[in-house]
Amino acid sequence: MKDNVWLTYSDEDRQELNALAERYKAFLSTCKTERECTAFFRKEAENAGYEDLNDRIASGTPLKEGDRIYAVWMNKTIALFQIGSEPLSNGMNILCAHIDSPRLDIKQVPLYEDTELAYLDTHYYGGIKKYQWVTIPLALHGVVAKKDGSVINVSIGEDPQDPVVYITDLLIHLAGQQMGKKASEVVTGENLDVLIGSTPLDPSEKSSKDESSASDKNSEEYSADNHKDDETAKKVKEKVKANILRILKEKYDIEEDDFISAEIEVVPAGPARDCGLDRSMIAGYGHDDRVCAYPSFEAMLDAGSAGRTFCCLLVDKEEIGSVGATGMESMFFENTVAELVVLTGYDSNLAVRRTLARSRMLSSDVSAAYDPAYAEAFEKKNAAYFGKGLVINKYTGARGKSGSNDANAEYLGRLRAIFDDNKVAFQTAELGKVDFGGGGTIAFIAALYGMEVVDSGVAVLSMHAPCEIISKADLYEAKKGYVAFLKNA
Fold first, then answer.
1. Nearest CA to 167 among 183, 187, 150?
2. Does the pLDDT of residue 200 top 80, yes or no?
3. How far is CA 392 from each of CA 25, 218, 404, 431, rounded to the nearest angstrom?
4. Do 132 and 348 form a contact (C-beta atoms < 8 A)?
5. Assigned domain for 224 exists
6. Is the dihedral of CA 412, 414, 415, 420 positive or negative?
7. Has residue 280 been placed in a domain?
8. 398 is in which domain, residue-wise?
9. Higher pLDDT, 54 or 210
10. Nearest 10 degrees: Cα torsion 83, 89, 92, 96
11. Are 116 and 86 found together in one domain?
12. Cα–Cα distance for residue pair 131/349, rounded to 1 Å
């Protein structure tokens, strides 16, 4: 087993480590959806001198060495490129991670009332232990697209003055039958409904909009109209639901039918925080896989220049199989590379194929950290550990390597040399014991182009839980490793 990397750090290393950890915590606390991540990276990229690919396409200005370009797709996926001195067809050095995380999604027809309590119906996204999502403070993040084309951003539950929402659980005093169920059945997916209100609509309550308009009307006419509204309100059967709809309309200009064209995610409320009395770890939601996405992005900004073109690709939908228009299986990345090829003076399918086939990628995704409380699930010699640095997974998949990329030995030898030469602490691991299960990443999708690709990332405790834990040292070594890869692969 390798030494704990904390023992090797100088005071300067620790200062850099802590500064990176603070920046990452701020990002993790603010960016809890793929849309929020994409908006953050886009803004930071523009501040660093990156130009929108669409603007370059419109102007027709050729790309040259040193140009920094980004492309965004559907506000959920972003690719960044720094053009090198070598022809693009020589291939790129690519850092790839995903920015979606397990969560609950609000359904298209979600709002209902039951015994004077109002709820939002949800559908869980990605692999979760459903019982972990009850009795914790939750927030609502997302967008609502109106019929007129306007888009309303929603973020409720993060500001200390905001209310939170909540999923109930059965009290222990009445849970005899529940406690006898398998863990997968203790809480069902259809029971993950979010409690959002309990106050009935008051017939005498008028909205601020109604109040302001009263001065513009004849007082007798307004009184008569308002009386009719009061009578209507008294006849409403689901008064708590009606009150929630009133609040949504007044505060956010959202009506019930607007949920049809909404993407609202239920995520744990609150910021990421230091964990441990020694502050050596970070506890927060969404480490999988933003703990790889964030240092990949910073590595792009800090790597300087080299012969090959650099790329940072941050994608959506990995947690549900990388499907859809914003997942790795979409044509977004290939189409974007084709646009770059044209802007560098070539216009052929063969040039695109050569660029992709000759590229090298770190498919950066998290790995399961060894947990002594559940030692039976791990094989110690081939497990990832806190404080041992960046994790390399030659293969992932399930049981008999099903669905894995299984990187070739020559590529791993090259990476070993890069990391050792640049004093990057790294370790190798598998995702638990062979027959215990497994998981997949996007590596096999990138490998379809023929490029060299291997899984790498940061070890995580309690992966896919609403609150996960990582080591600050491993975050620091990941960024160092990503910079070394971009400059030397």
1. 187
2. yes
3. 24, 74, 14, 11
4. no
5. no
6. positive
7. no
8. 5-101+285-488
9. 54
10. 110
11. no
12. 49
